[in-house]
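lol forgot to send this yesterday, sorry. struct tokens for the thing we talked abt
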């Protein structure tokens, strides 16, 4: 299957899931996750309408993003950082990406805020939450809920970061249906944060990947991050 055919099929499934949930599919952003795939694959996806592209590593992105942007008119793709970001790479991330979905500590947020200020930039972010408290995953720890809320209270006022919502990576489960409670919990947490911190914008819920995006949409996802179903298996 070609990237064009794959994208067509994914869009159809997004449409179906949105309909089941009684939601307009226009409120769901499809991020095509191109990690490990070459610039040519990204250009192919762009040709058939992909405008939001996700990468998970700053090093890899620092080669691919300039190459893709040079082949297009500037500013046509919105680049999402979706992978764990080390603080020493915050500067690179802030200059390369349009949105960082993987802000997972207060210290990282503070470092990014300084880097963004130096570049006179405002950077949209999502807070990554470890909903299942999986020790192998990054993200704010919800077991330490009071500490999380204290961190959020300090991130909200950072002038060069713009919170837009939450991101999570679903658990590794046998069937997508088993991921549903985790997505539901992220949505509940978002609603709670919107109450507690009304000055910030909590619109986005980034949840759902190749194996579970339909369920995530049924539970309110506004951003799905899809790699394999579009670009194929990663080697
Ligand atoms: C790789 C990745 C994705 C896409 O995963 P697929 O299973 O290929 O759809 C989504 N989110 C994050 C954070 C990733 O690292």
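and heres what i got for the seq, position by position
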């Amino acid at each position: 299957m070609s990237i064009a055919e794959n994208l067509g099929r994914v869009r159809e499934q997004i449409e179906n899931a949105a309909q089941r949930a009684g939601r307009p599919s226009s409120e769901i952003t499809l991020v095509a996750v191109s990690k490990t795939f070459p610039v040519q694959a990204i250009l192919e996806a762009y040709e058939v309408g992909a405008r939001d592209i996700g990468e998970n590593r700053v090093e890899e992105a620092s080669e691919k993003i300039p190459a893709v942007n040079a082949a297009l008119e500037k500013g046509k793709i919105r680049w999402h950082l979706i992978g764990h970001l080390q603080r020493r790479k915050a500067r690179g991330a802030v200059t390369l990406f349009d949105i960082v979905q993987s802000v997972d500590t207060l210290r990282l947020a503070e470092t990014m805020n300084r880097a963004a200020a130096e570049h006179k930039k405002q950077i949209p972010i999502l807070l990554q939450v470890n909903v299942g408290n999986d020790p192998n995953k990054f993200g704010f720890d919800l077991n330490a809920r009071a500490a999380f809320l204290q961190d959020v209270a300090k991130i909200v006022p950072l002038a060069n970061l713009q919170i837009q919502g939450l991101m999570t990576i679903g658990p590794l489960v046998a069937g997508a249906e088993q991921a549903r409670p985790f997505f539901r919990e992220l949505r509940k947490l978002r609603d709670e944060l919107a109450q507690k911190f009304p000055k910030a914008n909590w619109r986005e819920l980034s949840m759902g990947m190749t194996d579970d995006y339909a369920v995530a949409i049924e539970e309110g996802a506004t951003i799905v991050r899809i790699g394999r179903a579009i670009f194929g298996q990663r080697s």
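Residues 3-20 form the longest helix (18 residues). anyway ping me if u want another try
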